[in-house]
Amino acid sequence: AVVSTQSTGALPALVSAIALFIIPESPRYLVASGDRERAMEALRWYFKWNKVEFPETWKLRIHDALQRGNMKEILTPKYRRETILLSIMYFGNLYIIFGLVVFLPIALTEGFCGTAAKKPRLDCQKPSQADLLAYVVITSASIFACILGLVVGKFIGRKIPLRIFTFSLFILTCTLYICISQFVTQVLFFLTKFASAAANVIIWFIILEIYPTVVRNTATGFVNFWGKFGGAISAALVYFLYYVNPFLSVTSFVINGFISFVASMFFDKETKDLLLEDTLGESQVENES
Which of 50, 77, 173, 241 is at 20 to 30 A from 124, Cα to Cα? Predict the structure, then answer.
């Protein structure tokens, strides 16, 4: 059963690995990077895949190296505020998401219900089938959150949903202090997972829309670094804090939820329907009729 579960979990990674060798690089990125020939090949591939005739009249213009982006661009006054706020929000959200990966198995096995209910046991315990089922249900919240994030992002926008999700995340982490019943606690875990995943969907919408092509990958890597850094800290810290006192683990979730919410309130740029830039204000592709 363990081998079967591990094999099933590896399937998405295997599909992604195969896709890397099949799907071409982004034509916008290739043009911005100066590789015109590969950009045209990529465009033809995408048109063919979508069963659309490629307009051979298209012409690509390539910018010289001095016009291409670098790390300094995302920290210039034009993007500095958004870059810092996105990094803070992603740090806080991934702290909670990665922290729950560590926290949930222990909490479910030990019957966690509020931070003052009982002290944690220090011996290893085998999870029951009920514990495993609860874990699967709680983690499935991410699937529903991604769907909702896509819907609200398309029809409502970015700024308002982001604030709603981060505020909900903060409030939900606060409720983990309280014990009503184990079932209610599991519902709160589900909703916390849901809010954090939905907020991350909106954050990724914004990252991909706010930066020009020449620095989009750089900005993505920069923000992603701070998110993964928060996740790495959380994976170790939450585990340690839980066995000192579960109150401390929950408090760390609350602090990061609050930080993410405050950052979202300062983020005031709506990127829905924003015209994507290739370089700083200049288009890379011309359509000659």
Answer: 173
The SS3 of residue 275 is coil
- CA distances in angstroms from 220 to 96, 161, 208, 213, 273, listed in the order given: 20, 21, 8, 11, 19
Q: Which amino acid is at 64?
A: D
Q: Which of 110, 254, 98 is nearest to 182 (CA)?
A: 110
- Could you tell me the pLDDT band of residue 5, with boundaries at 50, 70 and 90? very low
CA-based R_g, the chain, Å = 22
* Residue 287, strand partner residues: 58
Ramachandran sector of residue 271 (left: φ over 0; alpha: ψ -120 to 50; beta: rest): alpha
CA distance 103 to 112: 10
What size, in residues, is the chain?
289
φ, ψ for residue 287 (rounded to 5)? Answer: -115, 110
* Three-class DSSP category at 285: strand
Each residue's pLDDT tens digit, 72-121: 888 888 889 999 999 999 999 999 999 999 899 888 888 888 766 566 66
> Mean pLDDT score of the chain, rounded to an integer?
83
Q: Among residues 171, 202, 163, which one has the least CA distance to residue 96?
A: 171
Q: How far is CA 56 from CA 44, 47, 157, 269, 286, in A?
A: 9, 11, 35, 37, 12
